[in-house]
What does this fold into?
Amino acid sequence: MPGRIEDYALIGDLQTAALVGKDGSIDWLCLPRFDSASVFAALLGDRGNGRWRLAPAGKDVTECASRAYRGDTLVLDTVWETPSGSVKVTDFMPQRDRLPDVIRVVEGLSGEVAMRSELALRFDYGSVVPWVRRTDHHRVAIAGPDSVWLRSEPPVPMYGRDMRTYTDVTVGAGERIAFVLTWHPSHEKLPRRVDPYEALEQSLADWQEWSGRFSYDGPWRDAVLRSLITLKALTYAPSGGIAAAATTSLPEEIGGVRNWDYRYCWLRDAALTLNALISCGFLDEAHAWRDWLLRAVAGDPADLQIMYGIAGERRLPEYEVPWLRGYEGSAPVRVGNAAAGQLQLDVYGEVLDSLFLARDRGLKDEPHAWNLQRALMDFLETKWREPDEGLWEVRGPRRHFVHSKVMAWVAADRAVRTLEAVPHLRGDLARWRSMRAQVHAEVCEKGYDATRNTFTQYYGSAELDAATLLIPQVGFLPLTDRRVRGTVEAVRRELDNGGFVRRYSPDTGGVDGLPGSEGAFLACSFWLADALHGIGLQDEAGELFEKLLGLRNDVGLLSEEWDPAAGRQLGNFPQAFSHIGLVNTALTLSGRQQGRG
It folds into this structure.
């Protein structure tokens, strides 16, 4: 069985990432990109679907004594205590020019410790067992287009058994052995050899240089920086896109079917990501994300997607992987995401808002950016009255979701304000002002329940939606408006889940077209903390934020959701949206963050 979701730590090279468990096993790794097929998939199956465990030999030590990232880096140190001595394993993936490496350095701390490395490579999501041969101090695994090379420095004996490669070695105090695993296309020659010890020093220097640009000095400095390091780790460096998570199909309900592939880039993350990065001094990443956004959405506005591949790919066909049983039996395991083909009107607002924010924060304009925004507005003017699948990507009927309409208002508002600030730009100011007013009036009439004093999930619905907490953040209504306070109080009361917030009620009304339920949604819980702070309930906001910080695992990582009954994390991991929420709420409570409106 795989570990609990929160038992894993993340390592990565800004093009892909691996999950390392407390038992010393790498149970998830896709090569060479986040969205490539996995070579280790024990996370979604069992050890027969691929893993690499490096830990003290024997059955008396099954979990590490302690682990932590080394300073403000993504280099992971894991310490093991055994009856015969102690040992440290350092796991990392050096930032690369082309080929990915996973490096694991074993260092004796005291006494002598017998270590075992067990490597089971399984290509194509755990379905293909490669041929393995020995050559030039390497073990080479090849199947189809993939090859993986394993070696050690200094060289130590390796042997094969049961379709696995083992190494048994004893380390004493002060001794070091490094294992290097390198992927490359099978038709190419032997890859260059990386020096593992030089790579370790360079990786530490790279991360320390990046973290050194961090400009926030508030009370939650370490938590904010760790979340930003996590966001950086989910960045696909060649394009600037940010994956929503490093995994696919970690369940929103144990044993349920709400299992989705999150290894792609969602447009709606754009504004929040930009705001978080810029507010903390990371302008290069904000530039790269903005440029990715402009490339990804270029083309016919009618073809705008809610998500794209990490390099901007449009086609993300969804299919099931039946040979993986799913995390703790949560099937199906899915690859790709059919939601890419949905109509979600809110993304037009997200795009215009993020580009407005970029201009407002001083990022240099791209010449074609305004032409793109004008085209998006022309399309949205003809579409905003239609129903859609909404922010939560429901797989039930399309509806007039209130959040979608609010974000259509945001699109018109940002277009109007851009023209007012830069009047030489082309655009129909009067028409966009008219659209802004029409959307606002319709939402206040059809999306508001006057009896309960709250905005609802969709027109004519009694259901609530945590996304309505964003109404004041985007500037649709001020925090002083009684309807805003009523909405905050209603969401807090009716969507409560163990002191946190569900995004909506999936077990009533069948709005999302799926069976089962889910946990508390962490991003929404951060939104509630922001909203409570905004309406003057600062103590309650601070208490909720501290509770949310307490949900992080031992190395500061959050998944998508939290199960209050079981006391465990749920959903894909680590989740960018959750960490964006953490950063923005810390800035809000510190007085460093203003609403997007």
